[in-house]
C-alpha cells in the first residue's frame, strides 16, 4: 500500500501523536464542520474557489484537492468529454482550459493531518487484493451440456454454473483488444458511467486510473454502434430460447459490452426484470460472489419496494468490510473466479457482484427462458412495476405487452403454462399473471402474491424468485407443482 500523496493518515494514528491534528489550526472556523460536511460544502463551490481554498492552508489544501471532489466535477461538467491526465484535478482543469496542463508538481505534504474520509479511498485504491478474498471457489463447472441437461441441472433449480468450452471458441477471444474495440466503435461513443465517451479516451483512462472504484464501460448500444462485434461471438445454444424476442425492438435492453480495468466491476444487485443472464469473459478474469434470492448479502440494504439498493460504493470496500461477515454467516455465498474463455450463468433473482482482477472485456446477455416466464410476469405485475421494470419504454405495461406478443407469436408457450396451471389448485395464481388487457387494478396483483404466500405447503422447486415488490421479501413461485 502506498502513502496518501499528501501524507494524510487515518484518524486512529492521531492517538499515537497525542491527539495533535493540524486539521484544527489549519481549517480555522471550518474545523467546526465534520470531514463529511466540509467535503459536502466544498462539493458545492466552483473550481476557481476550490483552487483558492487549496492555497489557504495545508489542511484545507488536502480537502480542496481531494480526488473524489474533482472526479465528480469532471464527470458532471465534462460528462464523457475529457482525456484522463493522471489525476482528476488535472483532468478537470485541462478539459476546462482546453489546453495541456503544466507539468505536475510534487504533491504538497501535510504531515500531521489525520482523516479517515480523505485517507480511505486512497487506501482502498492502493491496497493489494487480499488472496483470502479470492481463494474460495464453490462455483460448479460444466462442459458439453445439452439444453435438456442444462435446464434440468441449473436453469430449473435456478443455480449458477460456469460453462467452459464455448466462449474460448469465439473469434472475440483473439480479437477484442482495446485497439480493436476502438476501431470497431469507429468514432461512435461508448457508454461509460452513463456518459457518452470516446473509446480511445476510456482506454487512456483505464491505463492511467488510480481510482478505488474505476469508471466502467457498460454499453447496451454496442451492437448498433459497433456491429462488427456481433459477428465475433455467438449466443450459446443453451440460451437461444429468449421469450423477450417476441417484443422485437420494444424488448427491454438485453445485451451489454463490458470493459474495465482491474478493481472495476459491478456492486451487488439483482438482474433486471427477473431475467437470468450469461456473462462471457473474453479477456481478463472476474471474481464473482453470489447469494440466492432470499439472502440479502451483508452490507447491502435494499429499499422496501426493491427499487433501490444501498451498498458500499467500491467493491474493494465491500470485500474489506464485509467479506469476512459473508463467510461467517449461515448462508455462505457461491463464489469463484471466471476466466477468459469461460461463461457464468447468473440465475434470476440472485444477488451478485463481480470485480475484475485484471483488465477485462466481457459480453453479457439477459434472457427470458420459458422456465423463468412466471417469475418475469410476477415481477412485471408487481405494484411497483413502473419503477421496478427497467430498460424499456412503457414499463408498467411490460407484462401486458409480453403476454399479448406471446399470444401472437408463441401461443403454445402460454397455452402450455395455462394448461399446467389449471391442472392444479394453484392454477388461479398463475392465471392471474396471464390476465391480458391489464385493467390496472392493483388488487389483482396483491391477490396473486398473497395466493402464492397462502401458507399451503410450498414444494421446493428452486424456482425461487424475488418478485414481491410490495414487501421486498422473496416468495417461492410454486411452479413445479403446476407442471406436474
Ligand atoms: O461483468 C460484470 O461486471 C458483472 C455484470 C453484471 O453483474 C450484470 O450484468 O448483471
TrEMBL record:
It comes from the Eukaryota. It is found in: Nucleus. Residues 224-384 form the JmjC domain. One of its GO terms (molecular function) is oxidoreductase activity. It comes from Elliptochloris bilobata. InterPro entries: Cupin_8, F-box-like_dom_sf, F-box_dom, JmjC_dom, JMJD6_ArgDemeth/LysHydrox. SMART domains: JmjC. This is JmjC domain-containing protein. The lineage of its organism: Eukaryota, Viridiplantae, Chlorophyta, core chlorophytes, Trebouxiophyceae. Belongs to the JARID1 histone demethylase family.
